Structure formats: C-alpha cells, structure tokens
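Subject — a protein and its fold

Tokens — whole-number codes for backbone shape
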Amino acid sequence: MSSIVIDRVDADDTTLECDVSTSADLERFFSDESFRTTYDVPIEDVPEGVLVIPVLAQVCPVAWANGADVYVDEVDATFARALEDVKASLLSMYDFLEGGTLYAKETIDADPESGGESGLLFTGGVDSTCSYVRHREEEPTLVSIRGWTITPDSADDENWNHLRSRVSSFADAHGLDTAFVESNMLSFLAHPMLLAHYKRHVDGAWYSSVGHGLGLLGLCAPMAYARGMDDLYVAATHWDGIDLEWGSRPDIDDHVRWAGTQCHHDSYDLTRQERLDAIADYVREEEPDLQLQTCNDRMDGNCGECEKCYRTAVGLRLSGLEPTNHGYPFADEDYREIRTALEEGRWILGQDEKFMWEDIRERARETEPSTPEEAAFFEWIDQADLDELVSESAPPLSHRLLRAGARNTPTRVYNTVYPAWASAKSGLRRVRSGR
C-alpha cells in the first residue's frame, strides 16, 4: 500500500523541521532533505497539530496523485477537515488524482488566542497590491515567502533581499507589520520527478498547477497561530469566468483553514483590468507615487521590456495612469514593439496570458485612444486572433523524451542526471539569449 509517514516534527525557536518516510513506490518524489521552514516569530509554543500543517500541505497532493495514505501522530482537527475539502476540489479538477486518507493517532482542537490580525501574501504586484487596497482598513501583516519563485539557493539571495527590502519599505510607509517565511518545500519534494510524471496532465508545473494554493497557505500556519491571525488572504491570479486548472482557486484556497485562521482567495470577483482600476482609484485618492513590481526578469525594479511589464503598462494606461509614474518605462512607440513581439511569437505564453490580453482588448474597445500610436494598437488588438498569437508552445522534444524516460528510470539515476542536464540546458539558453 502506498504511504507517506510524517516521522518527526520539531520546532526550535523560529525553525520548523520535519522528517518524512515513504513506501518504496513514492521514494522518487522526495529528495533526501528534511523539510525545513523558518519564520521571524518563535513557534516553539505552537501545538504539534498545527506545526505539522506546513509539511502536510506539501505532501498531501503528492499522496493524492498516487492513491496513497498519509500517517501523522497529531493534527489540528480543523485542518484535517480542510484537507478533505481541498482534496475533493482537486479530484474534481484533475482526473489523474486518485485520492487517499489522512490517518492521525490524535486530532486536536487547538484554542489559540485571537489577536484580531489579518495577513496578506504580498509581492507588490498588481494582484497583491489590489488586495491590500481592498483590505487596507484591516492593516494586514504583509507575508512574503521564499521557496517557490525565489528559491532557498544562495544564487537567489540577491532576489530575496530585493523582495524583502521592497516589502519592508512598503510596510513602513503604510504602518504595517511584515512576516518573512523561508522554506525548502520544492527541494524537499523531487519537483523534477513530479514534473516528469505529471506534466502531461497539467498546464504548467506541478506546484503552479496543483500544489501552490494549499502549499503556500499551509506554510503560514505556525506563524499565523503564533501571531493570532484570524484571516489570511491570497490574491487571485484569475477571475470568475476563467475556468483554468490551477493550484490556487476559490474552491481550493477558501477551504484552507486551521485553528483560529480562515484563508481567503481574494479579488476573484475582479478581472486584472478591474484590479488596476481599483489601484488607480487608490492612487488618485491617497498615494499618487505608488510603485508596482511585476517584472518576470528582475526583482529590483521593472525591466519595461518583458511581456508582463508591457502588459501591466498598457493596463495602467487603460486605467488612466501614466506607467512611468508607477515603475514602468513606457512610451507610445512601445505599442508597436508589443504588437511585433506578439505577432512574431517572441513570448512563450499560456492560456492565462491569453485571457489577460483579451481583458485588455475588451477595455480598449471602450477607451478613446489619446495618441495615434495608441489608436493603431487598439485597432490591431481589436481584430487580432489571440488564440493564434497567444498560444501554448509544446515543450521541446528533448524535454518530452527526458520526462518519458524519467517515468521508467531508477530514482537515484534520475536525480543525478536531471540537475546536470537542466543546468546545461539553462546555460545554453543564457548564451543564446545574451543574458
């Protein structure tokens, strides 16, 4: 029988460490690392049933993909019920998931002190800034997580420092607290092996497509318990009407909860352009110099040249703001560059970007252009076939062959070969792109 056992849960000051063992058939999905997460508040007094939440939030989706059961000594009863609800949502979304059962020797009804606080997962991008605008009267603690898009590797230290500095500056300017969480959740999981086995079933990678809603929120449980945090918000990426298979959705995030804390998938009722409208209203009323950070290529500002920078700049214009005032170098001549890049397929875009450009097109149809260049772009995008221009590219044959081989390769061999192969491929891409 396939199984995952949480062997050890240990809290030392601000550090959480857990050991996991698995049945032989699941070994390939886990590295040799213990699961580790560090917080900036002491967690030693948090009950073990809450301390185990971060690791359960990472391993349970892997268990459900393999019909495996999970065993733990103690778990918070509220979170155990939440897992059943999240599992039902994921199983209804993905046919390849099989399910499984969580077995606990003891379930606890923890009774934390309510601090009346709220928290918001925050990067300073459009989505999380809109959520701040909507909930600013609650003065939410801004929570930033290292472990997914910014890895724990020393090579990402500079990016993490940039994010910490930016979030801290925003918090200081708005009278808010911060919470910084660092975890090895993706190197604890053998993410390349998960990708090799399940990429054919999902639109993106394992964590983005399956794991990140439950995973990121669950990481926050000990910190939220220690702080007396009643509500925890995560900003929506998509919006009502976009039915994409994605790891963070209302029918996942709104189910996540533990003793004292309820999680919320926020601003799903607004399209991305409407979120920019909310930010624009806030800018005009309260903070004319607000800066946003959304760049795909930099963490110390916006490059102004990647697809996401251009898309955000156009959205700001459509909301009546000048992009250059909010972190995006942009001129009318850039409209032609955007059109050319889309027509020539310079950007590898998925279905979610297609929906975002469609959102821009709908607003452009309602907007009077202010310059000839803008008018020409509006006319072009009104007629553009976005299904053709913004399409999912099939992975290179070399990627597909590697994944197919990995499904039948001994774990130790694969874990040795894949990092070297990926590093070499990454180096080639950097040389070819001139980066």
In short: The mean pLDDT is 90. The two ends are 48 Å apart (CA to CA). The chain has 18 helices and eleven strands. The chain has three domains: 3-117+121-266, 295-389, 397-433.
